[in-house]
Amino acid sequence: MTTRQLSLYLIVFALLTQPLMLFAQKSPVRDNWTSVKAIPAGAGIEVETKNGKTFEGKLDAVSDTVVTIAHNGKTDSVAMADVKKVFRTDGGSAGKSIAIWTAIGAGVGVGAGAAVLGRPAAATTRQRF
Questions:
Q1: The pLDDT value given to residue 54
Q2: Mean pLDDT lowest for which of 3-7, 26-30, 77-81, 101-105?
Q3: Domain span at residue 71?
Q4: What is the band of 73 on the pLDDT scale with cuts at 50, 70, 90?
Q5: What Rg do the C-alpha atoms of the chain give, in angstroms?
Q6: 85 SS3 class
Q7: CATH code of the domain in which 44 resides
Q8: Are 86 and 36 in contact (CB under 8 A)?
Q9: Considering only CA atoms, which of 83, 60, 86 is closest in space to residue 71?
Q10: Whole-number Å distance between alpha carbons of 6 and 72
Q11: CB of 79 closer than 8 Å to CB of 66
């Protein structure tokens, strides 16, 4: 049996052993307003309304019908029926995360390299005659 045939058989086997329901599942429907209400007060948000206006600032409060945003010393309230999208704007910096994990990886690499290369070579016992 060639490698190509074996690979084909493994792929077919993997597909046939999966429950067919996995391929038909839909993502669960969640109440979007509940997600908005879960955002903590003071978080940076941007609210886009159905008529195209955008409000950006800090979340002041969320009730069952209204979201209130504070920015530039004033507050704006947007009714739930008028909200098209809500975005969080105070997320962490991707660049900072990349820099941290790069430094961790470099440290591990340097440590592993030093451990492997810093070890004295196996002593050989060559005798001269």
A1: 92
A2: 26-30
A3: 3-88
A4: confident
A5: 29
A6: strand
A7: 2.30.30.100
A8: yes
A9: 60
A10: 66
A11: yes
Residue 128 lies in a domain: no
Residue that the structure tokens 């690499």 belong to: 109
Q: Report the number of secondary-structure helices (H) and strands (E) in the chain.
A: 4, 5
Position 49 in a domain: yes
Residue 120 is encoded by which pair of tokens?
């004295």
Q: How many CA atoms lie within 13 A of 120 on its CB side?
A: 3
Using an 8 Å Cβ cutoff, are 68 and 62 in contact?
Answer: yes
Please check whether residue 118 lies inside any domain of the structure: no
pLDDT in tens, 5-19: 888 888 888 777 776
Between 97 and 91, whose confidence is greater?
Answer: 97
